[in-house]
TrEMBL record:
Sequence segments annotated as region (Disordered): 1-108
InterPro entries, per the entry: CFAP99 (IPR039341)
Species this protein is from: Tetraselmis chuii
Feature: compositional bias, Pro residues: 11-32
Bias (Basic and acidic residues) ranges: 34-97
Domain of life: Eukaryota
Protein name: Uncharacterized protein
Length: 195
């Protein structure tokens, strides 16, 4: 090599400096009990000012008067009107939400058909059969004839009354059915005329 170069020396590491000492503050002054002289002087001046203001405005002529309190007010009238309006609105709302009565169910007219007549006939025949069995029982037991006669007359009278009531009921039902048919026919004619 044409040049003899020497290797550079390593730089020395910097020395570590010790940390600075922690600062210490002065201790606070000792705290005294109660207010300080300045606070006492401020409170005395405040009390003196309060007394001076009270003395100044102790005369009724010098008192502050609020003109708004002296104005005529219609507050009560407005309040009464508002309450009346709210009551009317509440009553209207309650009337609107009150549940309406359900319409009356139409009274259906009962018409006797063949099945109903057969049922009534079966009931009547069953009753006659019971009476026949009772008569047979009386005859077999040979009871007193007067008691049987009274019972028989009573039963016959009841049967006649029931038959008469049944005839009257059927007559009324037929009359009502005929009247309903006439009304229905008239209503149909009126509806056709209006259409």
């Amino acid at each position: 090599a044409p040049f003899n170069l020497s290797e550079p020396r390593p730089k020395p590491l910097p020395m570590e400096e010790p940390p600075p000492p922690r600062p210490t503050g002065k201790p606070p002054p000792p705290q005294k009990e109660g207010p300080t002289k300045e606070e006492q002087a401020i409170e005395a001046a405040r009390e003196q000012n309060r007394k001076a203001i009270e003395m100044k405005y102790s005369d009724p002529k010098d008192r502050i008067r609020l003109r708004t309190l002296e104005r005529p007010s219609n507050k009560e009238t407005v309040r009464a009107e508002l309450e009346e309006r709210e009551a009317a609105e509440r009553a209207a709302f309650e009337e609107r939400v009150k549940p309406k009565r359900a319409p009356k169910a139409p009274t259906a007219e009962v018409k006797l058909n063949t099945a109903a007549i057969l049922r009534e006939d079966a009931v009547y025949k069953k009753k006659q059969e019971q009476e026949a069995q009772a008569i047979l029982k009386y005859e077999q037991e040979l009871r007193d004839d007067s008691e049987f006669s009274a019972w028989q007359e009573k039963m016959l009278a009841m049967d006649e009354a029931e038959v008469a009531a049944e005839i009257e009921r059927r007559r009324k039902e037929m009359a009502a059915s005929a009247a309903a048919a006439v009304r229905a026919r008239e209503r149909t004619v009126e509806e056709n005329l209006e259409a």
